[in-house]
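Per-record layout

source: Oceanobacillus oncorhynchi
name: Short chain dehydrogenase
length: 317
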Amino acid sequence: MKKAIVLGATGGTGQVMVSELLDRGREVIAFGRSQNKLEALMAEHNHHLNLTYQLGDIFDCQTIVEAAKDADVIFQCANIPYQEMAEKLMPLGESVMKAADILGKRIVIVDGIYVYGHQVAKGDENHPQHPHTKKGKLRVAFEQLIFSGKWKRAKALIVRLPDYYGPTSQNSYLQPTLDGMAAGKMSIFIGNLQTPREYVYLPDAAKMIVNIADKDDSYGENWNIPGAGLISGKEIIRIARKVTGNQKVVIPLTKNVIRCMGLFDAFMREIVEIMYLTKEGFILSGDKYERRIGPIPATPFQNGLEETLLSLIGNKN
């Protein structure tokens, strides 16, 4: 891969993919619909000679075709808000896959773990897909679309991330907690503080995703992107207090509290059905990655959280 296009390049995952690809000397096209955000991304990378951008609409296949015609690989990192997922996820999949098929390109789809539902076995790529939520069932249909036989020329793979965090993260479950801690304010934590859960540091995820995309035999498959282990909310807050000096209260939001908030907030209303993950967790196995790609990059939580919080503090100053 010499040249890649990143769809949704100004989002949390898109930004870190752009950085990782540039660090490896690849040419990168940043694709998005906001010229201001794309120009800010260019400035953040000091107008790197290998970075260009293209304006376009992820739901307009033809704009993707025009932007991606010279790329070797398409990275689909654009995100759909929870409250719009039912209406927009499948059209997004149709648009990006049609573009990849017209061009005969490889395409990497960044997705999550809702397809699995409750964990009942080892969390590898063969874990049963028995989702009990509407988002999970929708994601199964999305996977079926990506790997549909109707695409004759596109070659796709799906990477699945658990909850994540990092300096570029924008809409993760940890974001309200880390934003509040960095700002010296009282903050919230979505879920209980005791359950050990898996989180992946986004720069680590980007390294793994590019490593997978570089392998010819990776396509046509699902790939798990595991984190650096398990950590509880209580331990995250302990580290955050040490980094920021913020000793103000952090309020854990239970399912019932979020359900009440959902009466007035569409986003919170959509979180209720997937609160099972904050209570049970889901642990992804990296065995396949280690067997076929190599060692898993795993930044310790202490280091990753420190880098994330210091970045947030710097952005607020």
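summary: Residues 3-168+200-227+282-299 form a domain with the Rossmann fold fold (CATH 3.40.50.720). The mean pLDDT is 95.
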